[in-house]
Amino acid sequence: MIHPDTLAFIADLKENNSREWFQANKERYDKAHEDVIAFAGKLIEALSKEDAGVDDSLDPKKCVMRIYRDIRFSKDKTPYKTNMAIGRLTKNKTVEIGYYLQIEPGNKSFIAGGYWMPQGEHIKSIRQEIDYNAADLTSIVDTADFKKTFGEFREQEKLKTLPKGYDADNENIELLKLKSFIAYRDLKDKELTGPNAVKLVAQLCAKIHPLNVFLNNAIN
Length: 220
Description:
Mean pLDDT: 94
Number of helices: 8
Order of helices and strands: HHHEEEHHHEHH
Helix content: 40-55%
Protein name: TIGR02453 family protein
Pfam families: DUF2461 (PF09365)
Number of strands: 4
Oligomer: single chain
InterPro entries: CHP02453, UCP028451
Largest sheet: 4 strands, antiparallel
């Protein structure tokens, strides 16, 4: 479980996003950071039993994202993120296919997986895989359980025009027009601070796992 004090710190940081406040509350941040690292360690252990791509020897510290924002090219100069996040949970280091947990109070946390906005050869390869083997993807994303958990997979950002090389009468055109291939579920504060938080997140990742397998197969 995520400790309620961790959510309280993030909420306070959102209201006081300055270096001066952060330094004055560095001890609170350190405790929150360690709390998220501990959660990541338990999640890695649980996920490794569901997904062979998750190594149970993975260092959880390396899976917790930096809270410091890169403000060099941003109009928003606030120095810190207003969430804490866990990612980089799989062995695949070349692309962003995997799992991502964002922790943000106010029922704004979520778990997501898949591939967000693939580019170049990757998007071409994924569309080709859909065109050749759409049944493999629909057997995952069109099940009642997947839809109940993550919603309609096709209702993500899509091209307004046809993808190059595909016709409007292609029976899978709505899948082929997708820009991202993501499964996403919001998490309530009480779910993350409850005793079954790790089990819940691991179970949700296990439901995303077949989608990750399809996407990895497409680009490899």
